[in-house]
Amino acid sequence: GDHATADVLLDADGNVLSIVCYPDKGYALVPLEGKGNPELGDNVVAVIDGRDDGVDVDGDLLIDGNNAIVYGDGPDTSIIGGNLEVTKKDVIIHGVRVKGDAILRKNNVSLIDCAIEGRLLVIGNDINIALCEIWGDVVIDGNGTAFVSNLVAGDQQVSGANLRCNDNHRFTDIDGNGAIEASDVLGPVNCT
What we know:
By secondary structure, the chain is an all-beta fold. It has no helices and 20 strands. The radius of gyration is 16 Å and the shape is globular. The relative contact order is 0.12.
């Protein structure tokens, strides 16, 4: 629509790898603050506040609806206390920290501006992962993932069918403080 916004993911030459569109109408608004184990249905925008007050979603968050959006204020303040699991298609998750694993089971899911303290498991096709810190293993079993400007723990290689990578780097938390400083970033991620 005329007033909608989008994230555009680019390759090293400035070519468009993927576009993530945020709809501007037809969605129910649901605040997630203080709810334990909520399930999100179709056409919902779930908002996690930006207050620095600890975990916002107790336990796991299951997104079991098509065209759902979870929108946080950034991974330092909008926190999911357990695992994040997506079991439907056309879902966007933006600006959150996941204390557990992120499991993306269906197609056309986007995870942008995030921190994942557990592993990232991509099963669906045409997934977008951008601007995320991934502290656990990265497993991509789906086809056509765009993996852009992420920080990945350790020396692991990131691979997948028709994987499109740009500007991903390895890190090690040298001082063990749970934060990534410039000195912790070691070099590019090997994508195949």
